[in-house]
Amino acid sequence: MKPRTLPDLLAQSSHKLQRIRQRSAQLDRLLAHIRDVLPPPLASHCTGVAVKADALIIYIDASAVASKVRFLAPQVHSSLPPAMRQRIRHVEARVLRARGAPLPLRRRAAMSTDSAHIIHASAECVTDPELGAALHRLARHGEDEN
Question: How many domains does the chain have?
Answer without folding.
Answer: 2
